[in-house]
User: Fold this.
Amino acid sequence: MRAVLNAVDRAMEFALFAIFLAFSLVGGLQIFNRFVLGLPLSWSEEFQKFGHVWMVFIAIPVAYRKGAHIGMDAILIRMPQAIQRAIALISEIMWLILALAIGVYTERLMEVAKFQDSPGLGLRMDWVYAGMVLGAIYLALIAVRRIVVFFKPSLAETLA
Assistant:
């Protein structure tokens, strides 16, 4: 199980790298074409916007998994351990609810968007929003892993 989850984690991190690399290269190409050749690309801005959508919604669960999101705990650390654990569990459940909400409502949006094409790239818009669903699925996976570890700390090494 650990090997599969690690492979999923690495795949998501690689996807982030690939997306960032792709829209950085396209951005550089756009600058070169516009200012050196005088021939701006008609599709590069749209490509970069869509790349940002995918990158953000994949980066959210990656940062969540690594504990990189900002938290305010000045009051929390002064509370009894039982209250701290309860708030931590509520926080994990809220992440799961967020993931489910993003996934469900984006899927509804995609039902309409599949009939629309982007003007610059000609992509079906549901493909653009698919990154949000992918990120929501990965976020839910991370949240479930963290909730399981919360109740079964002995599984932490298996799921980490």
